[in-house]
Amino acid sequence: MFQKQYIRSKRFFNKYNKPIEMKLNLFTGTLVLATTFLSCSITELKEEKVLDKSATLIFPTGKKITNSNFTGIAYLQPLAAADSLNQTSVGNVTFEPGARTKWHIHPAGQIILATAGKGFYQEKGSDKLILRKGDVIKCPPNIPHWHGASSDSMFVQIAITGREKGEPIWLDPVSDEEYGK
What we know:
By secondary structure, this protein is of the alpha+beta class. It folds into 2 domains: 6-56; 63-180, Jelly Rolls, CATH 2.60.120.10. It is 20% helix and 39% strand. It is built from 2 helices and 16 strands. The protein has helices at 26-56, 176-180; strands at 6-8, 12-13, 19-20, 23-25, 63-64, 70-71, 74-80, 88-95, 100-101, 104-105, 110-123, 129-132, 136-139, 145-149, 155-162, 169-170. The strands form 5 sheets. Strands 5, 7, 8, 11, 12, 13, 14 and 15 form an 8-stranded antiparallel beta sheet that branches. A two-stranded antiparallel ribbon has the order 1-4. Strands 2-3 form a two-stranded antiparallel sheet. The longest helix is centred in the N-terminal third of the chain and has 31 residues, at 26-56. The radius of gyration is 29 Å and the shape is globular. The N and C termini lie far apart (69 Å).
């Protein structure tokens, strides 16, 4: 039936410098190679998962937002403040599940870059959009809108906000009914 096959391997030398002939069973050799390959593949998968986790959060979470312009828990990590050289501010905002902004407008508009989780964006009078990692939203100037996390996932965004025409104007909270639609 199964006939043993042997492979000659390289010559090895003992402590007296005498050559040692090594014979390796073909089945055992294949098994050793397969195990080595699989363990390397598993290591690579583990490294990928670690990279995915670190890739999820590009910037630190920041400090908890304590003003009344948000419902639920959200965090802000300022990345670039508007100044006399550049009137644009950039911030990393992390929303816990269910957290969201009030309705608000930006006189110079805003760009939202979704970097992790699942979130929502809605302009007044329009349907709510689902946002996922890699989505980009251009909020037109002076259009009431809100954004935040879905009820079952955190959401992280980078908000790029023009300040040259003034600060955001905060409006009413987003009701649970509006949020749930």
